[in-house]
Amino acid sequence: MTNLATLTRVRMQLALRNKMFFFFSVVMPLGFFFLYAGVFAKSDPHAVSFFLGPVLALNVMGSFWGLSATLVMYREQGILRRFHVAPVSSADMLASSVLANFVLTLPTVLVILSLARFAFHVQNFGNLLALILFVCVGTVAFGSLGLVVASITNTMQETQVINQILWLPLIFLSGATMPLAYLPKVVQGFSNYLPATYLVTGLQQATFFSKHVTDLWVYFLALVAWAVLSFFVAAQLFRWEPETKVPKNGKLWAAATVIPFLVLGIWLHGNGKMLAEAQAAYTAISKSSAPSAEQPKN
Amino acid sequence: MANPILQVENLVKRYGDLEAVRGVSFSVEEGEVFGLLGPNGAGKTSTIEVLEGLRVADGGRVSVCGFDPVRNPTELKREIGAALQFTSLPDKLKVTEALRLFSSFYNRGRQPEELLKRFGLEEKRNAFYSQLSGGQKQRLALAMALVNDPKVLFLDEPTAGLDPQVRREIYDIVEELKHEKKTIVLTTHYIEEAERLCDRVAIVDHGKVIAQGTPRELKQTSANISRVEVRLAKPASNGALKTLDGVVDARELGGAYVLHCQRTAPAIVALVKHLEAEGNELVSLEIATPSLEDVFIELTGRRLRD
User: Fold this and answer.
1) How many CB atoms neighbour CB B216 within 10 A?
2) What residues does each domain of chain B span?
3) What dotted CATH number matches B6-215?
4) Do B93 and A10 touch (CB under 8 A)?
5) Is CATH 3.30.70.980 the classification given to domain B224-289?
6) d(CA B180, CA B177)
7) Helix, strand, coil proportions of chain B in percent (round to 5)?
8) CB neighbours of A295 closer than 8 A, spacing ≥ 6?
9) B6-215 and B224-289: same fold?
10) Exposure string for B149-172, b = 16+ CB within 10 A, e = fewer
11) What local confidence, expressed as pLDDT, does residue B224 receive?
């Protein structure tokens, strides 16, 4: 346990000295927040609270990016093997990645909530417990996605390519940027299979409609299951040595982590529950302030 | 051997089709400095990394401080310290942070402050790892290898790539540790390093130990061999020199000719006669006692660094 504690502390220090981390974890989420709250929501508190879920989701989802890049860099440069020759386990290494990222993500969440409260006069954050739980599980889950990416890529270039491929659909097809209700039917159908949609919808329902976790348990448990599965797979595929390549069945293992969303996706696609909830939020905001929900076509 | 702290029996390590280590055996006593000497690619690093628990052997038996690296990796790692051939740390990690972090992984050890002082890193305590010179990085690597006051210290090519002055600094540090009776296993392709630092040496080539003993013993096995270095007035052909009575091998080296002789006296007589017949003249002649380099040449027919 002490290994995990000291590793987490040092890795937090290192992240804070990293300009890239600062950009992705602080500047970018806050930029999104001001874009949504100031431009799209035209500073209307009700509209801002509609965008709170998507903005927090974007903040939380960015976790996998820096986490995978750092881990792959440590492996490529032979930093991991120096830890390996000390009594440090792969679980210590992986868990400290997720934990350091978790602790460092929370301040930005607090800054966004404070800005919403004091600069944009959002009086009500909905169900606070549900909000906290979704932020926590989301941060851990997307952090674990970063571990999986690191485990199935051999070089930094590969990692960045995979990150790009994952990032774009996660933010554009999940309701994190453009509201789901606003997207074409085909995309809406596809969004049922994206983990990001579960996080965005869960957060938005919690903040905008004050829903309890008990109402949102499907989304919550899906993310929990995904986090656990991803961490397990990343631990199975963990490599200390720069020259050890991804095992042949590695990509298969990584693909297996999406099983919760495949199963639930078929179910939710069938009954249309998640889309209906996203639609309800969009309808509510469109009625109260029709012009402000207007999205740029792109 | 009374009670070796480290034992290697018939170690085999393969990478795909390449058999890097092909049945290496040796053992190390407590308090001994043991060297694996051989050219690059001989299998030294593979051997030492199996002992450190970084790589898994494909055959043979290994025991370090009574632990098997595969069955008890954590227990083994608590007892050992290692400076890897290429140590790397995060760029933005400070020197003191590195020492504190790594000492936190063990429940005993030396104070990071003491190590900073000892390795001359006090001034660099708040420097980032990326700001250190090669020599400072290597001193930090050695300091980090000592944070747990290890029972066995592994040094993989501790001076490779360092300039001569830094190399001498590292020698001083290792000699100091030797005086403290620390058990050290080091690999090197520098003859000087092996002769100067090691109590015993195993000469490794193509994944096998081809000779083993104290530097003195090893040289005595080649005692009947002597090295005669001659300078001649006119160039001579190596081929002709090689066929002389008593000469095993001849080669040109920086304007001089180095003859490895089985029987020194008859070889010199033959040489002088040969030069007379060729109309050549002897400028200088030096008879050297054999070095480990000569032992290596005798055993492998090659120089250590070709």
Assistant:
1) 8
2) 6-215, 224-289
3) 3.40.50.300
4) yes
5) yes
6) 5
7) 35, 30, 35
8) A40, A178, A179, A182
9) no
10) ebbbbbbbbbbbebeeebbebbbe
11) 67
Closest partner CB to A17 (pick from B87, B92, B106) = B92
ipTM for the predicted complex comes to: 0.87
* In chain A, where the domains are located: 2-291
- pTM for the predicted model, two decimal places: 0.86
Q: Beta strand pairing status for B247-253 and B183-188?
A: unpaired
pLDDT score at A292 = 43
A93–chain B nearest CA distance, Å:
12
Tokens found for residue A130: 């549900």
**B101 at interface of A, judged by CB pairs closer than 8 A:** yes
Confidence of residue A291 (pLDDT cuts 50, 70, 90): very low
How far apart, in whole angstroms, are the C-alpha atoms of residue A195 and residue A259?
Answer: 11
At position B6, the amino acid (one-letter code) is L
Tokens of A259: 């099983």
pLDDT for the residue numbered A293: 43
Residues of chain B in contact with residue A20, where contact means CB-CB under 8 angstroms, are none
Average the pLDDT over each of A228-232, B198-202, B246-250 and give the range with the smallest value.
Answer: B246-250
Token digits for B170? Answer: 């590292």
Q: From residue B102, give the alpha-carbon distance in Å to each of A4, B106, B189.
A: 12, 8, 29
Residue with tokens 């469109």: A286
Residues of chain A in contact with residue B52, where contact means CB-CB under 8 angstroms, are 85
B104/A3 CB distance under 8 A: yes
Q: Is B261 helix (H, G, I), strand (E, B) or coil?
A: strand
- Spatial contact of A97 and A11, defined as CB atoms under 8 Å apart: yes
Q: Which of B35, B41, B48 is nearest to B8 (CA)?
A: B48
**Residue B146 identity:** L
What tokens does B27 get? 């053992």
Q: Which of B52, B92, B106 is the best substitution to test chain A (most A C-beta atoms within 10 A)?
A: B92
Using the Cβ of B74 and the Cβ atoms of chain A, whether some distance falls under 8 Å is answered with yes
Locate the chain B residue with the closest alpha carbon to A70: B90
pLDDT digits (tens, 9 = 90+) for A173-211: 988 888 888 889 899 999 999 999 999 999 999 999 999
Cα B129 to Cα A15, A212, B97, B133, B161: the distances in Å are 15, 48, 10, 9, 18
**Residue among B78, B86, B101 whose CB faces A6 most closely:** B101
Cβ contact B97–A10 (<8 Å): yes
- A138: tokens are 């989301």
CA–CA distance, A106 with A111 (Å, rounded to integer) = 9
Selected for mutation to probe chain B from A82, A97, A240, A243 (highest B CB count within 10 Å) is A82
From chain A, which residues contact B within 8 Å (Cβ)?
2-3, 6-7, 10, 13-14, 17-18, 74, 77-79, 81-82, 84-89, 240-241
What is Dmax (Cα atoms) for chain B? Answer: 75
Local confidence band at B56 (pLDDT 50, 70, 90 cut-offs): very high
